[in-house]
Predict the 3D structure of the following.
Amino acid sequence: MSFVDQWRGACRRNSSRLCLGLDPEPERLPAPWTRDTTRLYDFCAAMVDATADLVCAYKPQIAHFAAVAGEAQLERLIRHIHDTAPGVPVILDAKRGDIGSTARHYAREAFERYGADALTVSPFMGRDSLDPYMDAHPDRGLFVLCRTSNPGSDDLQALGLSGAADAPAERVFERVARLVAGDWNRTGQLGLVTGATRPHDIEAVRAIAPSLPLLIPGVGAQGGELEATVRAAGDHFLINASRSVLYASAGRDYAAAARAEATRLRDAMAALAPL
């Protein structure tokens, strides 16, 4: 099954647009695991067990594991997701961006070593940086960075591009959306990353790419407002939450608290945009 079909199936089955980001911080793990970097798997697996029927995707962040030599824990975690939440896709958040043989190796890493169903990538080097993934794994998804939540994204993403005299200039992120929605999407498995902190820009992206999946981080801890984000996104979107769910409680009830917060977010999204 292709990534897009898998994701849509999980949305329908779990009545959910919630993507749970798995970004474990050792210092925030519950006792007695606090600061124990060998327990990233245990903590994240507990999150998966608590939310398997509530989400449409999981998004582990590779740096949180690689920084503490936890790659084997990440491999084990993705296997656990596939076993515990069959049909719920895994989006590996790595933001890769290179060409040629390097991109082919990144594709092997994400899709063969880790078994991810989709990967986040940077478009800065152009279409050449996406083709190796699609050539080797046409059924896997790629979420292309487009309009991100961080304040510094204006340095490049909001810059205007010169256009024809009779046409308004596009901004860089709008050009990315147009390319990804057009010729670049030859497998039909591409989506865009659009941050929740700028709903008007989400609207601009959606107008250019009405049917592409939008992966939307930035709700909650980064300042994005849920209702404005959902209304701007239209349809075909998943909203990522990480810290608000993972660290809903630091006590023994951490898994139950995570489930309660995930339920609240899923139901709030469903009330605003029924599936």
About this structure: Residues 3-272 form a domain with the TIM Barrel fold (CATH 3.20.20.70). Strands lie at 18-22, 57-60, 91-96, 118-121, 141-147, 190-194, 214-216, 237-241. The first helix runs from residue 3 to 14. The mean pLDDT is 95.
